[in-house]
From TrEMBL:
Ranges of Basic and acidic residues composition bias in the record: 1-30
Low complexity bias: start-end ranges: 69-78
One Pfam family from the record: SpoIIE
Keywords: Hydrolase
Top-level taxonomic group: Bacteria
Domain PPM-type phosphatase: 346-563
Coiled-coil ranges per UniProt: none
The protein's name: SpoIIE family protein phosphatase
Transferase recorded as keyword: no
Lineage, broadest ranks: Bacteria, Bacillati, Actinomycetota, Actinomycetes, Kitasatosporales
Gly residues bias (residue ranges): 94-117
Region (Disordered): 1-117
Keyword field contains Glycosyltransferase: no
């Protein structure tokens, strides 16, 4: 049989059958295209580029991490950052809003797109949603105004835009308060894409990116912009919705906002988004894109609206939080003493640390209250909780303690009345308190405790000891007695009162912390030697340095008292019978004491004032009157009697025979006052020992 030779037509037909169909051959824009068909266009300097996935619908390695990152390749592509393209792809293919993106039903070159184009569109929309979710989460993480604005800038540049300007109302209204007039916007923050080497940029690109160029000032000519009523900017802000910058109202509004000399890229490359809070517009954000990336598209207005809404609501909350924090801080500071007194024979220093910056309000307090007889009351307390309620209760208890101290009640009686006051405030009003009274003349201290950590006494030689004080029950328990102990307070010793936040935390119990505090005080005293106590301010700072990173679970109140005392040779004390001769005898005794102290220049003034005060005391007293002179940096005179009626200064008439004694005291004395005691009163005055 002879072999059949195919004709030329048959040969061509067989070749066509053997050749794979056109649709089956890999195309650069379909699955199966090699990596060579996806060579990337050089990325913009200062900004990361990412290639598109080689298989539509299948994630590349590491795509999960990229999706979580705001600068991920897929997200950047959805926001308009150019991805890598194959050689056969037209410029801008696959970019939303770029040349060749078109509608889903039209592919590049007028061909009907395949399933890969539909998947790419769906992928871009999904990336856009993921970007919005990630950006809003970043904005929501901010707790104050600066953090929220920074979150908006970092979330959008360079992923969504090449530059952003954020203007906020100045001042920002808080809550329901009426905003200030006129309507003024202040530039709060700017951010832009920074280029590594601008000398290699195309000239036309630099001209179009004048707002983004590092050599061009991004800040408007004036940081403040007054929004004119009925102006273009006011109309755009009233509309609330973001607008493209190429419309006539938007161009006029941007010129009013940024200044007429500030160029803005044309076309859909600028978005002006009003920032509207819960009740009113509080600012505006301007998003700008350069020429190297596609312009904004319609869906980007929705993205800008979401970012603006979340930012405005976050700013509203941040302003409210800032106001609450300010009120809390002011409340706490007004509850604590502005400055400590400077009583005779004792030096004082204090510290207060809140538990955290975000919770500045607490129930810890300290106080130092001068008492008659040159004594001083030292108080430290701690109300349970960290809230405005705790601070309010603390303020009431502190005021009560000051009032009770003014009555010169014993420490245990003061705690008893504080306990009754806490029960009147509520059944769950609990607090601990330590109340001590130091007498610099007797060099003794009387302490009563209500469930508070015991004080630590640092002796002059460097030995530190925890004082044995009955613990007692906390204030507010009710039905318990408080016990007071009297201890020696040697000159040069330092008493440290504190709250449990200093010695107790999640990492250590209270007694371990007290022992560490005692060791720290002893170690600090060794640095200055046995004859020189450490400075009070430095001692307080050193004590706080013992706190570690995990030791700040509670507020800390610290009160340090250095006992200097008053030497017995600088004190003169007498009893005077309530009779007519008492003023004359008081003058003679005071003159002798001044001669002994070398203060003869004060004799005339002291005799006159002592005579007036003693005369007034004898008039109402039934028991002996006390007269005491103390010489320290000032000369202090104290006259006590058993009458509870306090003297009042009044203007005497020309025909009155008396009523001028306190007027003389007020004119001649450096300071004077009267204190009611449980058994009478004390009238005192001070004179400077040096002119």
């Amino acid at each position: 049989m002879t072999e059949h030779q195919p004709t030329s037509h048959e040969s061509r037909h067989q070749e066509q059958l053997a050749r794979p169909p056109e649709a089956a051959r890999p195309r650069p824009d379909e699955p199966g295209a090699g990596s060579a068909a996806h060579s990337a266009v050089p990325a913009r300097r200062g900004q990361a580029r990412a290639a598109t996935a080689s298989v539509p619908g299948q994630p590349e390695p590491g795509s999960r991490d990229l999706a979580r990152d705001l600068g991920a390749a897929a997200t950047a592509g959805a926001m308009g950052v150019p991805p890598g393209r194959g050689p056969a792809e037209p410029p801008g293919d696959g970019l939303p809003g770029g040349p060749g993106s078109g509608a889903p039903g039209a592919g590049s070159g007028g061909e009907v797109p395949g399933g890969g184009d539909i998947a790419a569109v769906a992928r871009r929309e999904g990336d856009r949603l993921r970007f919005v979710g990630a950006a809003t989460r970043r904005i929501a993480r901010g707790i104050d105004l600066d953090e929220i604005v920074l979150g908006l800038c970092r979330a959008t540049v360079p992923t969504f835009s090449d530059a952003i300007l954020v203007h906020l109302r100045d001042p920002l209204p808080v809550g329901d308060e009426r905003p200030a007039s006129p309507f003024v916007l202040r530039l709060r923050r700017t951010d832009r894409l920074r280029l590594v080497d601008e000398s290699l940029q195309e000239p036309e690109a630099i001209d179009a990116l004048s707002l983004l160029n590092a050599q061009t000032d991004l800040t408007p000519a004036a940081e403040l912009c007054e929004v004119r009523t009925g102006g273009a900017l006011a109309e755009v802000l009233r509309g609330v919705r973001p607008v493209f910058g190429d419309s006539v109202p938007a161009r006029l509004a941007l010129a009013e906002l940024l200044g007429p000399d500030r160029p803005v890229p044309g076309g859909h490359r600028t978005i002006l988004a009003p920032l509207r809070g819960r009740r009113r517009v509080i600012g505006a954000a301007v998003f700008v894109r350069g020429l190297e990336r596609p312009a904004f598209e319609a869906n980007d207005l929705l993205v800008a609206a979401q970012l603006a809404t979340h930012t405005a609501l976050g700013i509203d909350k941040a302003v409210l939080y800032g106001r609450e924090a300010y009120i809390a801080d002011e409340l706490q500071r007004t509850m604590l003493p502005d400055s400590l007194p400077q009583p005779t024979g004792v030096r004082l220093a204090s510290r207060y640390l809140p538990a955290a910056e975000t919770a500045r309000v607490g129930g810890d307090w300290y106080d130092a209250i001068p008492l008659p007889g040159s004594r001083v009351a030292l108080v430290v307390g701690d109300v349970m909780g960290h809230s405005m309620t705790s601070a309010a209760i603390m303020g009431q208890l502190r005021t009560t303690a000051q009032t009770l101290a003014g009555l010169d009640l014993p420490p245990q009686e003061v705690l008893h009345h504080l306990d009754e006051q806490a029960q009147r405030l509520g059944t769950d009003r609990m607090a601990t308190c330590l109340y001590a009274v130091y007498d610099p003349v007797a060099h003794r201290i009387t302490i009563a405790n209500a469930g508070h950590p015991p004080p630590v006494l640092l002796h002059l030689g460097g030995r530190a000891e925890v004082l044995r004080v009955p613990p007692g029950a906390p204030i507010g328990v009710g039905g318990v007695d408080f016990e007071a102990v009297e201890l020696d307070a040697p000159a040069g010793a330092t008493l440290l009162l504190y709250t449990d936040g200093l010695v107790e935390s999640r990492l250590r119990d209270v007694w371990t912390g007290i022992e560490q505090l005692r060791e720290r005080l002893a170690a600090t005293a060794q640095l200055t030697g046995p004859d020189h106590p450490p400075p009070l301010e430095a001692l307080c700072d050193d004590v706080l340095d013992m706190l570690g990173p995990g030791d700040r679970d509670d507020d800390i109140a610290l009160l340090a008292a250095r006992f200097d005392g008053i030497a017995p040779s600088d004190v003169a004390y007498w009893f005077l019978d309530p009779e007519d001769s008492a003023p004359g005898r008081a003058r003679r005794l005071a003159r002798r004491a001044l001669d002994r102290w070398g203060l003869e220049e004060l004799t005339d003034s002291v005799e006159l004032l002592v005579s007036e005060v003693v005369t007034n005391a004898v008039r109402y007293a039934e028991r002996p009157v006390t007269l005491r002179l103390l010489k320290t940096d000032v000369l202090r005179c104290e006259v006590g009697d058993d009458s509870p009626q306090l003297p009042r200064q009044r203007r005497a008439r020309d025909t009155d025979e008396g009523g001028r004694g306190l007027f003389l005291v007020n004119r001649l004395a450096r300071r004077w006052g009267a204190t009611r005691l449980s058994g009478g009163k004390v009238v005192w005055f001070e004179l400077a020992t040096r002119p």
